[in-house]
Amino acid sequence: MTALPPRIRMLQIAIVLTAIFNILALLVLVWRDTPIAFAVFMFVGETLFVVALVMLLAAMLADLRSQKIL
Q1: Quick check: helix, strand or coil at residue 18?
Q2: Most buried by CB count within 10 Å: which residue of 8, 24, 26, 57?
Q3: 1 lies in a domain?
């Protein structure tokens, strides 16, 4: 199996983190009565989203640099 370029690997990790964020948001919408789900979403979900966003931007910049656009 060949190793993927780092920008592709970062993009895959960002997609997985965003999917986990969406699952946590869905849990908050489904279980509105439990404050535990909301607390987990606020502490873990927002952090996952920020990390995924930073990784997505880094992958985009790496791709643009590899194609010599930047």
Answers
A1: helix
A2: 24
A3: no
Report the distance separating Cα 33 and Cα 3, nearest Å: 45
57 within some domain: yes
Q: DSSP labels for 22-62? A: HHHHHHHHH-TT-HHHHHHIIIIIHHHHHHHHHHHHHHHHH
Q: Which residues contact 40 (CB under 8 A, 6 or more apart)?
A: 24, 27
* Coil, strand or helix at 4: coil
Q: What is the residue range of 26's domain?
A: 6-66
| pTM, rounded to two decimals | 0.74
